[in-house]
Amino acid sequence: MRYTPDNWVVLKINVAEEGDLHYRVLGGWSGGYTTGDSWRLNSGITSVLDGGDYLIFHGSTGSEYICSKETYGLRMNNAHIASYYLEEYPGMVELMPEDTDWVKLFS
Predict the structure, then answer these.
(1) pLDDT one-digit tens code per residue, 32-74
(2) SS3 assignment for the chain
(3) Cα torsion 91, 96, 97, 102: sign
(4) Higher per-residue confidence, 4 vs 90
(5) CA-based nearest residue to 5, from 60, 43, 55
(6) Are the CB atoms for 30 and 75 separated by under 8 Å?
(7) Residue 43 confidence (pLDDT)
(8) How far apart are CA 93 and CA 80, in angstroms?
(9) What is the C-alpha to C-alpha distance for residues 35 and 57, in angstroms, rounded to an integer?
(10) pLDDT of residue 18
């Protein structure tokens, strides 16, 4: 499945007792009058390709998130979900900085 979020961030999730460190794309889509906002959290990033103006994040279940480099950040459509994870799991969930070298991180 391919997804193209309107905005996105990456959450770093560290489950220390399981020795599990992974990264997930949290994408947000701005809805209209009849549809409302929506969000998706991918299954876990396995690789990243640089497409020039965008990045392609491959997920562990085969999904692809095609994310514009210009739209990294939280908006109303995904901020409440990020806040939930950051508050509910302190020390385990971290919001990755915008200037992260995604391709290098996953190579």
Answers:
(1) 778 889 999 999 999 999 999 999 999 999 999 999 999 999 9
(2) CEECCCEEEEEEEEEHHHCEEEEEEEEEECCCCCCCCEEEECCCEEEEEECCCEEEEEECCCCEEEEEHHHECCCHHHHHHHHHHHHHCCCCEEECCCCCCHHHHCC
(3) positive
(4) 4
(5) 55
(6) yes
(7) 93
(8) 14
(9) 26
(10) 66
Compute the half-sphere exposure of residue 94: CA atoms within 13 Å on the CB side of its CA: 12
| Residue tagged 């020390």 (tokens) | 91
Task: Tell me if 26 sits within 8 A of 10, measured CB to CB.
Answer: yes
pLDDT above 90 for 81:
yes
pTM assigned to the model:
0.93
Residue linked to tokens 């409302």:
36
